[in-house]
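Quick one: structure for this chain?
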Amino acid sequence: MRDKLLIGLGTYKRPLMLEKALTSLQDLKFPDFYDVFLLVCDNDANGSSRETVERINLSFEVYYKIEPRQGIVNMRNAILNFANNEGFDLLTFFDDDEVVSPQWLVEIVSCMQFYGVEAVHGHVDFIFPETSRSPFVKKYYPGMLKKQTGDDLKVAYTNNVLINLEFVRTNNLTFNPKFNLTGGSDTLFFRTLKDLGGKIVYCREALVSEFVPETRTSIEWLLTRHYSNGYVSYLIQKERTVKVYRIITEIMIVIKFWIMKMKLPLHIQDINTYKRFKRIKNRRKTLGRYHALKQIPFEEYTEIHGE
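Got it. Here's what it folds into:
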């Protein structure tokens, strides 16, 4: 009996990027002994992606589902629930601003089989627009993992990952709705998977390419992303640690924040070296952690980047 593998692709009002993502699947090679399916989950209640999905011809079965509840967690859980309810064995995610290489699925499945792990994170090649000239953005862009195939990972992300659903069902894993607009639900999901004894490895041969939109190539966006990372890291720590350790963490966050406040301010126009950029980046991350502690609202996933 052949196993079933589902490719999960979430999308929201980015038809041009979605078309590229779906077109890349036309050349996809399939792993032996697997029946492969695709689920496109549209987070637009009006179903704006339906026409794009129906227009692209693929050689395997495609499901289209609308998730009307806004938010990336709702979309991810809709895909996960579909995979579990339909009895799939493996689930892989990639994003609607990415294209997959022809051998992507073969490589990521082979890696899981070879290492006998619960999750595999593939390689993401970031493609920047020609107008992007900032060396800081390209050097510190989030998600650039300098790993080799078989390296153990502490966490994975849904921009290129394969998951063993038997382990997920056994441990009743889902994406936490508290992170619906802040981001970070995939980080918490895979950290929890590790806490429960699951293993994650890297696969450099399982390649997808991500097209970075112009709006994500500015210094300000990059610093905002590091603020976001700090904000979410506190929320994740709050979910994963017992109260006594959380109190210690919170004291340290407050101390770091006030030390930062006493230092001379640093502004974007002051960035002229990597050392100075890292100082500003670390201050933004500290500010994000402090704001999360103080419950100051931050919603990263309310703006659409790309088309």
